Amino acid sequence: MTSEETQISEELKGCYENLIVIDIGANLTNKKYGRDLDSVVQRAKDAGVQKIMVTGTSVRNSKEALRLTRLYPGTIYSTAGVHPHDAKSMSEEAQWGELRALAAAPECVALGECGLNYSKDFSEPHVQRHVFNKQVEMACELQKPLFVHEKEAQDDLLKILDEFGNRLPPVVIHSFTGSVEQGLKYIEKGFYLGITGYICKDKSDGGIRRLLSERILPLDKLLVETDSPFMYPNMRASKLPLHVKDSLTERSMNFVNRYCTFQRNEPCALPAIVELAAGFMGRSPQDVALATAFNALKLFGLSH
């Protein structure tokens, strides 16, 4: 460990009992938070969410995410990127200059959300690949991590990333919902996986639950996120194992039950997601909270 990493680790151990967590992906620019964002951020803090990364999905959206970092300094950080659904919007060179300026801001800690999504045809696949490639190039130039979205496009996504070789910065697969085989491909590349409330929805024998329960996903490559207002953690899911439900504390459940719904998830749900992940992994929530917070602080430089 470097002296900086040791310092971060010691600071987090001081908060060990409070289950301090970091949300690496929340869409707080969504109109669903238009009337009460102050309350949403305060609830997150009360729940133990120390820092929140607000996801940029277009030039306009990335600009708004960066604006929030100035309203909530030290708590909110932003990403800047173009989601594959919005790839067709990047038709003018001036937009790329604007995106680069947003991505270069010190409060912006990653390039993305960017990637490929072949499950829907909002943008043609060849357009998605072109726009993703340019964002990977930008991340290499700025040496900022990549915040990656992928649905039904793993082979093409890995092919593009492989072309950058050793220039490639750290890669986070945001809101991972794939199979064990897909997860293994990312893990073998040294990528991080972001886990959300989807952990309650996944009923397959070969998905994220198995990656966690068989400890295929190393703790040092695990990150947690709410993807608010999406990915509500439905703790009443019928196929959620009893030993996992037992890992949930009354405090974390209260935040979810009082403030979160299927229509609007919030960052205050993150401690429950950490506890669920810990239940599947057979680890203590404190260990998972400490590891994921440390991973996020180190990877995105959120302590600065």
Concise overview:
This protein has 304 residues and is α/β, with parallel strands linked by helices.
The SSE order reads: HEHEHEHEHEHEHEHHEHHHH
Largest sheet: 8 strands, parallel
Mean pLDDT: 92
Spatial strand sequence of the major β-sheet: 1-2-3-4-5-6-7-8
- How much helix, percentage-wise, in residues? 40-55%
- How many distinct beta strands? 8
Number of helices: 13
Distance between the termini: 18 Å
Shape: globular
Properties at a glance:
304 residues; alpha/beta; 8-stranded parallel beta sheet; 8 strands; 14% strand; globular
Annotate the secondary structure layout.
Blueprint: H1 3-14, E1 21-26, H2 37-47, E2 49-54, H3 59-71, E3 76-80, H4 93-104, E4 108-117, H5 125-142, E5 146-151, H6 154-162, E6 171-173, H7 180-188, E7 192-195, H8 198-201, H9 208-213, E8 222-224, H10 242-245, H11 250-259, H12 270-281, H13 285-300
Parallel strand pairs: 1-2, 2-3, 3-4, 4-5, 5-6, 6-7, 7-8
Helix pairs in contact: 1-13, 3-4, 5-6, 12-13
Q: What would your notes on this structure say?
A:
This protein is of the alpha/beta class and 304 residues long. The two termini are 18 Å apart. It is globular. Helix 5 (125-142) links the parallel strand 4 and strand 5 (146-151). Helices cover 45% and strands 14% of the residues. Helix 12 (270-281) packs across helix 13. An eight-stranded parallel sheet has the order 1-2-3-4-5-6-7-8. The model is unreliable at 11-17 (pLDDT under 50). Belongs to the metallo-dependent hydrolases superfamily. TatD-type hydrolase family. It comes from Parnassius mnemosyne (clouded apollo). It holds the Pfam family TatD_DNase.
